[in-house]
């Protein structure tokens, strides 16, 4: 089972992240408190790989147990 971009975007927005800009097929989300930005690949309805999903969560300081 994979994770789609809509699911990870929902988690990010619940944790204070917002869409900063779009560059091609990547949506760049930003958090001013953490002073970080993270790209989220949007490729239609294709799932993100499990590893990429957890890598994005780690970059955003979100624990997978909080999901």
Strand content: 25-35%
Q: What is the architecture at the second tier of CATH?
A: 2-Layer Sandwich
Cα-atom radius of gyration? 11 Å
Number of domains: 1
Tell me the number of helical segments per DSSP (H or I, 4 or more residues long).
2
Number of strands: 5
Biggest sheet overview: 3 strands, antiparallel
Q: Quick one: CATH superfamily?
A: Hypothetical protein
Protein name: Type II toxin-antitoxin system HicA family toxin
Keywords: Endonuclease, Hydrolase, Nuclease, RNA-binding, Stress response, Toxin-antitoxin system
InterPro entries: HicA_mRNA_interferase (IPR012933), HicA_sf (IPR038570)
Pfam family, one: HicA_toxin
Polypeptide structure, described:
With 67 residues, the protein is an alpha+beta fold. The protein has a single domain (5-60), classed as 2-Layer Sandwich (Metal Transport, Frataxin, Chain A), CATH 3.30.920.30. Helix content is 30%, strand content 33%. The protein is built from two helices and five strands, in the order βαββββα. It has helices spanning 5-14, 50-59; strands at residues 3-4, 18-23, 26-31, 36-41, 47-48. Strands 2-3-4 form a three-stranded antiparallel sheet, with helices on one face. A hairpin with a 4-residue loop joins strand 3 (26-31) and strand 4 (36-41). The longest helix has 10 residues, at 5-14. The protein is globular. The mean pLDDT is 91.
